[in-house]
């Protein structure tokens, strides 16, 4: 299935450096948890950053690793997503 993820240019550079898409929740510079939010609608992803990624992800493959349900507008994925399943589809230079 196709999903979308919005991020900043800085975070996109970190994602590429790490070699996977796997979000980070930091509190006081400490890593608390990892998950990635995926939107079902490109407009929703645009809200979260100037770089919009298209993600190929099968939410039915292992339901224990995501919270997807039919008719959801987004889901959380609790596993790393290989960059081979990620494509940059938009970089909005005017968005800050």
Throw out a few tags for this protein.
alpha+beta, 3-stranded antiparallel sheet, two-stranded antiparallel ribbon, globular
Cross-sheet strand order for the largest sheet: 1-6-9
> Which percent range describes the beta-strand content?
35-45%
Distance between the termini: 29 Å
What's the tally of helices? 2
Q: Describe the oligomeric state of these chains in a short phrase.
A: single chain
Task: Provide an overview of this structure.
With 96 residues, this protein is an alpha+beta fold. It has helices at 9-18, 42-46; strands at residues 2-7, 20-21, 25-27, 30-33, 36-39, 51-56, 74-77, 81-82, 86-91. A 3-stranded antiparallel β-sheet has the order 1-6-9. It has a two-stranded antiparallel ribbon with strand order 2-8.
Helix-strand blueprint:
Blueprint: E1 2-7, H1 9-18, E2 20-21, E3 25-27, E4 30-33, E5 36-39, H2 42-46, E6 51-56, E7 74-77, E8 81-82, E9 86-91
Antiparallel strand pairs: 1-6, 2-8, 3-4, 5-7, 6-9
Structure at a glance:
With 96 residues, this protein is α+β, with helices and mostly antiparallel strands.
